[in-house]
Amino acid sequence: MKKNTKEKYQFQSETKQLLHLMIHSLYSNKEIFIRELISNASDAINKMKFNILSNKIHKTNYKEYIRIIINKKEKKIVISDNGIGMTKDEIINNLGMIANSGTKKFLSELPKEHSKINQLIGNFGVGFYSTFIVSQTVIVKTKHIDEQESNYGVLWESQGQGEYFIEKIKKENHGTDVEIYLKETEIEFLEDWKIKSIIKKYSDHISAPIEIQEYNQKNKTFSWIQVNKGKALWKLKKTDITKNEYQEFYKNLTNDIHEPISWMHSTIEGTYEYTYLLYIPSKLTWNILDPENKKSGLKLYIKKIYIMDDVNQFLPNYLRFIKGVLDTNSLPINISREILQNNNITQKIKNTITKKILKFIHQLSLNDDQKYKIFWKEFGLIFKEGIAEDIQNQEIIASLLRFSSIQTNSEQQTLSLETYIQNMHEKQKKIYFLIAENYEAASTSPHLEIFRKNNIDVLLLSERIDEWMMNYLTTFKNKTFQSINKIDQESEKLFYTDQNIKITTKIKTLLHDIEEILKKNIISAQISQRLTESPAILLSDKNSVSSHMLKLFAATGKKIPAIKYTLQINPKHPLIKKIIQITEIKKRKLWIQMLFDQALLSEQGSLKNPNHFIKTINKLLIEQ
Predict the structure, then answer these.
(1) Are 418 and 477 in contact (CB under 8 A)?
(2) 266 among annotated binding-site residues
(3) Where are the beta strands (DSSP E) in 388-513?
(4) What rounded mean pLDDT belongs to the chain?
(5) Which residues of 400-410 are buried (b: 16+ CB within 10 A; e: fewer)?
(6) Is 491 helix (H, G, I), strand (E, B) or coil?
(7) How far apart (Å, rounded) are the C-alpha atoms in residues 259 and 250?
(8) Is 86 annotated as a binding residue?
(9) Binding site annotation covers 101?
(10) Are 460 and 434 in contact (CB under 8 A)?
(11) Which of 106, 225, 431, 586 is the most exposed place for a label (fewest CB within 10 A)?
């Protein structure tokens, strides 16, 4: 009796969860399993070709193929390739678990809407598991090229439940065969025309021939018929490519179910020759903002030979949302990521492509306002990084920024710097901005009062990156940026002059008392000509760290000295008039402390000792 050599394994817990999710959530798009398996086969062939060209594998007359056999009798589809194959360890790592550090976060943040689940799954590159949407059982037979001298390969088998089996089998040639035993409800995939239409839809561009076995009734023989065109789409003339073909190529390339906002396709000839087909997605993938995830969505080909994914050497980090293909004749086939990083040709291509992309995005902003709004909503936060990262292109990057402001009166960022300058006050020489913790805090800040009164617009910034960005963005079109919560004598003279303010002896005494009582917290106390509704405001020195930056430092555990402000008061405000009338020292001190805490709360959004502030308020209320 033959001994059972099958080894039983349990799926990784996240894999179990994902399998369940796919089987029950992707039913409406079940045909993608064909696309995913062909994509995997193509990757295996590309790895094989790369290793041959880089002399890691010695093989002559290699002719790649992806072949599909439909067996109606057994309700089975077999997709085979003669790619690099897998070892036992690789098949366990590739099929038994999801080798992705973000998987747990991905699963914990899944939306309830099934339409969004499809997109997320694609982003994680776990397409093999889509076979379980349509199958009862999946069997994978594989043999790695390094084990070609052996007569054995590996069999992997699962029904998509909690376990899978591995067995040593006889296998003559390297490559992988995936056998899908269909559920009774999925026999539509046993029709030749169905499989052909799916290949045409998703995989027509795959360079390896995708062949389907057909039976000739007349000759009573089987033959292989190539289904795909097998041409690299990016190498075709733009005039020969339809809009639908561009969109389907993008979806196949990225596994994104959404259509891209736009794309750019061009061939550069000269000292360095290369072709690029680049897309701007319409949706932000959840992990692109993760500081640990700096991967680009660019695939590198050399002379139409696939070299590597996630190539970040040809795009600056702030353009990492761009997806697409770069194909060049100017680099050696066996180039590594490390050599790419320090390669002079790489840098020249990067500089040119970056300028082309920025010019393309600029044209998009001019020609299609609706699409640009989508672009900015999805990628504006990442794009802002370019102000600091790419000084060479800072001017055009700045022109593509969008802001909220007093005049737009909306949290939606739609105002460009060029439009701001066009609408500037006739005496205005600077671009005014305010940074706050959130839009609500910015739009209601007392700093805005005099600007609203004089109909002067102010940019309202409230994203974490804004403080850092504005340290690098100092001018635009010869206009200097000015933070309105910092002292600026030039602006004071232009906009804050009020001849009706009389500095009486009582006001002078109050200013003296404020400076004495708050000497640990403020530099000086002054009369404000910028307040119309609030009793007091805090201003920092032009060279000091802002309140917002102080909070950002605190969040990272960094300790820096507390800011010493200038406290400005509004002598026309009823609260200031009330404090002026208080002569009892102890009571006056309480009111001044409360005034400062109130201004500090407005400026920073929080207090170091809120309980002390509450007790002071309560005490003053009781004494009323």
Answers:
(1) yes
(2) no
(3) 404-405, 430-435, 459-461, 475-476, 479-483
(4) 87
(5) bbbbbbbbbee
(6) helix
(7) 8
(8) yes
(9) yes
(10) yes
(11) 586
Cα angle 464-465-468, degrees, rounded to a multiple of 5: 120
Both 512 and 372 in one domain: the answer is: no
**Residue 95 domain-assigned?**
yes
Name the 3-class secondary structure at 530: coil
Q: Do residues 211 and 322 share a domain?
A: no
Would you say 81 is a known binding-site residue?
yes
40 is in an annotated binding site: yes
337 is in an annotated binding site: yes
CB 366 within 8 A of CB 444: no
Number of H-type helices and E-type strands within the chain: 22, 22
The 8-class DSSP code of residue 565 comes to E
CA geometry: angle 556, 561, 566, nearest 5 deg: 120
Contacts of 341 (CB under 8 A, 6+ apart): 313
Query: What's the CA dihedral at 92, 95, 96, 100 to 10 degrees?
Result: 100
Q: How far apart are CA 297 and CA 325, in angstroms?
A: 9
Residues paired with 182 in a beta bridge: 135
The DSSP output letter for 549 is H
Contact 563, 605 (CB under 8 A): no
Rg (CA), the chain: 33
pLDDT by residue (tens digit) across 384-423? 999 999 999 999 999 999 999 999 999 999 999 999 999 9
Q: Which residue has the tokens 């061009």?
A: 266
Instruction: Quick: pLDDT tens for 414-472.
Output: 999 999 999 998 888 999 999 998 999 999 999 999 999 989 999 999 998 999 999 99
Domain final position from 226, 248, 266: 226
For the four alpha carbons of 518, 519, 521 and 525, in that order, the dihedral sign comes to positive
Which amino acid, residue 451?
F
Residue 169 has pLDDT above 70, yes or no: yes
- Do 57 and 180 lie in one domain? The reply is yes
In the chain, the number of structural domains is: 4
Bigger pLDDT: 183 vs 546: 183
Asked if residue 310 belongs to a known ligand binding site, the reply is no
